[in-house]
Amino acid sequence: MKLAMIGFGQAGGKIVDKFVEYDRETGSNVVRSAIAVNTAKADLAGLEHVPERNRVLIGQARVKGHGVGADNELGAEIAEEDIDEIQGAIDHVPVHEVDAFLVVAGMGGGTGSGGAPVLAGHLKRIYTEPVYGLGVLPAEDEGGIYTLNAARSFKTFVDEVDNLLVFDNDAWRETGESVRGGYDRINEEIVRRFGILFSAGEVQEGQEVAESVVDSSEIINTLSCGGVSTVGYATEEVETAGGGLLGRFSETDLDATETTNRITSLVRKAALGRLTLPCEVRSTDRSLVVMSGPNDHLNRKGIERGRKWLENETASMEVRGGDYPMSGTDRVAAVTLLSGVTDVPRIKDLQSVAVETKDNLEDIEEESEENLESLVRDESDELEALF
Ligand code: GDP
């Protein structure tokens, strides 16, 4: 599947940057265009793989290249005001060659949190291609403001995109890790999962043709139920025949039952293990299984069994599946896309913390207004202001 990716804000830009790197390393040809949009000049300068001409600095008149802090209302306003500048970069995207747009942002901050939903709505009005969002939830310990921002952005973003793929930083943080080191690792996890998912349907150069290929239309169909999606992933190392004469015989030598069992067990691990957004698997509307790995370690029977298992687990008839053979790897991996999930306790928790924060902020604001008033006014209110 070919995507035009737009990273909004710092997290969005860094994740798109990583996608470009992954695309080059694996030759997967998924990222047809990569654009980064930000109100902070320094964040754009820190990117390594998004081409310079595709880095768009917005809001210069308002914030002079210094970012919006964590003010996502300002982020949204600036995106509205400067939408033509963003469109200027999108005008260079060969839209007839892309299957969809992917707008990526951290939902807890300001620029991406406010701007990404504005851009998604704009793209939907202009283009017929689907517009997907990849939204990152903040970790719980980032604090109330980030949670409030994320809850409001989530509500807005879901409405503006054809499907919102969610990644929850909280489910992926590890204790004792520096913030920067943590994000680098987390971004790799993000890109690996979504990379394999979106690579399906793209044939690499010199790649063998899959037995049951996943086409980009199957990804689109899975996502077309709308709402919120989450992705699971599991992988296992396998012995490869190492080419040469041995390579030719490897297919017949491999134990087909072992291959089938490995695939079904990986599908199970992917769906029941750590998802990008933890949720009740049973609340899934549509799903997709993609198996990747060396061609001789993939088979139709395994995928069919994995698909049937997921059908049962999600209580849904709409389970698609296929393989994506990759050369030069000794790992077999399963990616499960669970689309239109509705039972997500993490979102409910996020919303209740957000409401609490909003109430607290209102109380604090009211109190400080009263305090200022009593400071400025003399006791008997005799002094008059000049004007
Ligand atoms: P913005 O530049 O104003 O859009 O805000 P940021 O993107 O810097 O931060 C928004 C949120 O994204 C933060 O609260 C973090 O939860 C998250 N975040 C920031 N940087 C990264 C990153 O590199 N990777 C991931 N996964 N999350 C990030």
UniProtKB/TrEMBL annotation:
CDD domains for the chain: CetZ_tubulin-like
Biased composition (Acidic residues): 362-372
Compartments it resides in: Cytoplasm
Keywords for this protein: Cell shape, Cytoplasm, GTP-binding, Nucleotide-binding
Principal subcellular localisation of the protein: cytoplasm
GO biological process, one term: regulation of cell shape
UniProt region (Disordered), positions on chain: 359-387
Biological role: Involved in cell shape control.
Family recorded in the similarity comment: Belongs to the CetZ family.
Protein name: Tubulin-like protein CetZ
Gene source species: Halorussus caseinilyticus
